[in-house]
Amino acid sequence: MAAAAAGGRRGKAPRGAAGRRRLRTVAPAAERKPRVPARRPGDEEVSSDSEPESPSVPRRRREVAEEEVEETPQEKKLRLAKLYLEQLRQYEEERAAEEEEEEEAAQPADLIGDRLKEDVLEQRGRLQRLLAKDVQPPDPASIRVLRGHQLPVTCLVISPDDRFIFSASKDGSLIKWEVESGKRLCVVPGGKKGTEEQHMGHASHVLCMAISSDGKYLATGDRNKLIMIWDAATCKRLHIYTGHHDAISGLSFRKGTHQLYSASHDRCVKVWDVAENAYVETLFGHQDVITGLDSLSRECCVTAGGRDGTVRLWKIPEESQLVFYGHQGSIDCIQLINEEHMVSGADDGSVALWGMTKKKPLALAQQAHGMQDAQGLQQPYWISAALVAALRNSDLLATGSHSDSVKLWKCGEGFRKLEPLLDIPLVGFVNSLKFSAAGDFLVAGQTPLARVPAKG
């Protein structure tokens, strides 16, 4: 998608002091060593652990020097903080000097303050990068079509490095694609029912999938109540998880871990430890089938409860849940925008924007994809399956339906308003949507095609 969400500040500095690009580390005075004269021929080399005290240095001076070297934990924290701020100042000064021909240079102190504020907001899950204003309609010629599945594409994920797409289908097959070339790198065909132990792939419709944030594990869930764990690099099946009593409808890895959450039409959520190949616990609460699930870094997940009319936030350590109400129809899809906000879609055609501290939506777009004529009656186009996508920590959303288009939205006024941006025409049913991590392309799984706008 040309120029879609290709935002963010150019030349952004890494967050930690260590590993920072183009920064010169300045040692504090207390750490600088005195210059040592060149060793003359015949001098004996002595290690610092066994060096004797020099008789030419008065005892009192040596004691003062030792006192200056010693640091309390508080002094060390202060020294490292000053060093970090000095490195930030140097980096921002260098960047401002490079860009002063293009724009007026900002004050380094202000740049440092903005950067520290951004770090804090991201840690708290409240960071919102304003990228929607830069979105432009994609050139239709830039939309690439990837063909390989025999039946409709039902779900897809993009690898954390944006190099690969994994898609699955009603035919039970799993395909790994290379984004740059569009080539199929690996194909796991679907099998017949009852052949799961002999056949490597699924033997029924694959309904959902997830990939770990390090790109190591891929998880897929099917209509036959099975969860399969794969090596994402080789597409080799590693484990099969059983335990749910109905179709698997949602999967999500907790960011930064190998903890996997699964949701099912049996109305419960299960927690798994994929690295240890272990089941952890089961969570109950929904009164109807669970239709969607998502998670980020915190030890919690959010779910859409179908026709029970609720969105739920599950707090795993506290063994508690928060219940949200807002849609009139079946809530069929949900995704987190950041740790404090989420978006959901329902079959009444509405899209809702939520804050974690409010039980009602912060913003609600009715008839988001317009109306259709169904048997002489005007009905809204539903927003179902995995048809909401959020570009993490930004103000950009996408929704899909069977209205022959994907719609892009802006979260305005501090997540209190949903503003339509533009429509991307796509013929057919859109079954799944995913933004790339960098936000420069959007993938739509369709019936029967997967469409990939080229990088802008």
Q: Could you explain the architecture of this structure?
A:
With 456 residues, the protein is mainly beta. Helix content is 12%, strand content 36%. The chain contains three helices and 30 strands. A hairpin with a 2-residue loop joins strand 22 (371-374) and strand 23. Helix 2 (73-99) crosses helix 3. The longest helix has 27 residues, at 73-99. The termini are close together.
Question: How many β-strand runs?
Answer: 30
Morphology call: globular
Helix-strand makeup class: mainly beta
Strand fraction? 35-45%
On the 0-100 scale, what is the average pLDDT? 80
Spatial extent as radius of gyration:
27 Å
Summarize the structure.
The strands form eight sheets. A four-stranded antiparallel β-sheet has the order 1-30-29-28, with no helix packed on it. A four-stranded antiparallel β-sheet has the order 2-3-4-5, with no helix packed on it. A four-stranded antiparallel β-sheet has the order 6-7-8-9, with no helix packed on it. 12% of the residues lie in helices and 36% in strands. β6 (206-211) and β7 form a beta hairpin.
Chain-wise SSE layout:
Elements: H1 59-69, H2 73-99, H3 108-123, E1 143-146, E2 153-158, E3 164-169, E4 174-178, E5 184-188, E6 206-211, E7 217-222, E8 227-231, E9 236-241, E10 248-253, E11 259-264, E12 268-273, E13 278-284, E14 292-294, E15 300-304, E16 310-315, E17 320-325, E18 331-338, E19 341-346, E20 351-355, E21 363-365, E22 371-374, E23 377-380, E24 388-390, E25 396-400, E26 405-412, E27 417-425, E28 430-435, E29 442-446, E30 450-453
Antiparallel strand pairs: 1-30, 2-3, 3-4, 4-5, 6-7, 7-8, 8-9, 10-11, 11-12, 12-13, 14-15, 15-16, 16-17, 18-19, 19-20, 20-21, 22-23, 24-25, 25-26, 26-27, 28-29, 29-30
Helix pairs in contact: 2-3
